[in-house]
Specification:
The protein has about 210 residues and is α/β, with parallel strands linked by helices. It has seven helices and eight strands. The chain has two domains: about 140 residues, Rossmann fold (3-Layer(aba) Sandwich), CATH 3.40.50; about 55 residues, Ybab, Chain: A (2-Layer Sandwich). About 45% of the residues are buried.
């Protein structure tokens, strides 16, 4: 399955999530690419939109490859291969501190005049534009589980089957539109896959209900 762009993927995900319309779901995006998608889904489901801040821990010399992830609280998920790829625990700790600093800066700029929307007791749908290793989504779901949502849903357009199996235990429900065996990168399943800027994220969150 090939998506025209993130808007196309979001509309298709909205259709798959229509059972939650009218239940005031909280749609949480993993920044930055998923934020426009989450806004489209929230509008379709009459929900609210916000971000869940998690960051991947980058492999030395290969920033696109995740060895794990960290959430705003500092909880860290590491892949089985992390120690071998990182080479040292010191590298992992330094990378963790770097990403925590980025999240503090993003939280201050994304929602400067309000706290994050509270997921407690709500149907929470966590959206990303696709999963590769799944480490960032795992960190997001773990962070949100601690805040006692009524139901925790992971919703993505595309992910490889082995990643879906790895993420599944962290969510109450998995919604994935396509799970191809031959998977190299999320962008290969989009005709248009541009970067989303911080300015666009701030604009979308500023226009969000409840902000």
């Amino acid at each position: 399955m090939i998506f025209r762009d993130r808007e196309d993927a979001a509309r298709r995900l909205s259709e798959a999530l229509m059972q939650y319309r009218g239940l005031h779901p909280l749609i949480l995006a993993i920044p930055r690419g998923a934020v426009p998608m989450a806004k489209t889904i929230a509008d379709a489901l009459d929900g609210e939109v916000d971000v869940v801040l998690v960051r991947k821990l980058r492999a030395p010399g290969n920033p696109e490859f995740a060895i794990g992830s960290v959430d705003e609280t500092g909880w860290t998920y590491l892949g089985d291969y992390a120690g071998h790829v990182a080479g040292s625990q010191r590298y992992i700790e330094d990378e963790k501190e770097t990403q925590l600093r980025v999240m503090r800066e993003r939280r201050a700029s994304y929602t400067p005049i309000r706290p994050p929307l509270d997921p407690e007791g709500r149907i929470v749908i966590v959206v990303d534009d696709g999963l590769a290793t799944g480490s960032t989504m795992i960190a997001a779901l773990h962070a949100l589980r601690a805040k006692h949502p009524r139901k925790l849903v992971c919703a993505v357009p595309v992910a490889p089957p082995d990643t879906l199996e790895k993420v599944k235990p962290y969510a109450d429900e998995m919604v994935c539109l396509s799970a191809p065996e031959e998977f190299y990168a999320v962008g290969q399943f989009y005709q248009s896959f541009p970067q989303v800027s911080d300015d666009e994220v701030i604009r979308l969150l500023g226009a969000a209900p409840g902000s």
